[in-house]
From TrEMBL:
InterPro entries xref list: Pep_chain_release_fac_I, Pep_chain_release_fac_I_sf, PrfH, Prokaryotic/Mito_RF
Signal peptide: none
Family assignment from sequence similarity: Belongs to the prokaryotic/mitochondrial release factor family.
Domain Prokaryotic-type class I peptide chain release factors: 123-139
Lineage of source species: Bacteria, Pseudomonadati, Bacteroidota, Chitinophagia, Chitinophagales
The protein's name: Peptide chain release factor H
NCBIfam families according to UniProt: release_prfH
Coiled-coil regions listed: none
Domain of life where this protein originates: Bacteria
Length: 208
């Protein structure tokens, strides 16, 4: 299965750009699912205004033998130009807003090894009275090199909770592993923003 990490960022752009990040993430997720790709948000940083995002990190996967991922990445990677009047500044003349989309190959960037994971069973807590605490069905996973921990207690089945725990721990680890790299790339994209504006890979017009 091929996987990629996608970062969408407003760089140091104004509030309008953070709105565009949220809009682009929404469009990308719809587009990916329409093409049969599995996509999820690993993390996002909210902007100052409701419905805005400073940045978002997505994990996208394709099933073995599928070829949609390469085409999807090629379509979105780069600078996205969003044409719309500002919803925040009524008489603002500017109508072009830019966000950056970068893609990273998971195999190259994230080194995930189950040997680095410690799993422990524990009693679940929460609603359900005494019954929920009778059996240790919850599972706590720790990624030893980073210290990242995840607790799964969704199911009464310890086996299912173990699987959920591993999936969530891997996703959290990848997000952590990519954080510094993404931060550097965001700064680099912002530095080159002025040059990239003339070479947008995608132009979207929003009539609000």
């Amino acid at each position: 299965m091929n996987k990629s990490i996608i970062q969408v960022t407003a760089g140091r752009g104004p509030a309008e750009c953070t709105r565009v990040v949220a809009k682009v993430v929404e469009l990308m997720m719809k587009d990916a699912r329409r093409q049969g790709l599995d996509i999820q948000v690993l993390e996002s940083k909210k902007g100052d205004l409701k419905g805005t995002l400073l940045s978002a990190v997505l994990l996208i996967k394709e099933e073995k033998g599928a070829k949609q991922l390469d085409a999807f990445v090629k379509e979105w990677r780069g600078t996205v130009q969003w044409i719309a009047e500002s919803p925040y500044r009524k008489f603002h003349k500017r109508k072009n807003w830019f966000v950056g989309v970068e893609v990273f190959d998971v195999k190259e960037q994230a080194k995930w090894d189950l040997k680095d994971v410690k799993l422990e069973s524990c009693r679940a807590s929460g609603p359900g009275g005494q019954h929920v605490n009778k059996v240790e069905t919850a599972v706590r996973g720790t990624h030893l090199p980073s210290g990242i921990q995840v607790l799964a207690m969704d199911s009464r089945s310890q086996l299912q909770n173990k699987q959920l725990c591993l999936e969530r721990l891997e996703a959290k680890f990848m997000s952590w592993q990519m954080e510094q790299l993404l931060a550097r790339r965001q700064d680099q994209w912002q530095e080159h923003n002025e040059l990239e504006r003339g070479r947008a890979v995608k132009v979207i017009t929003d009539k609000l």
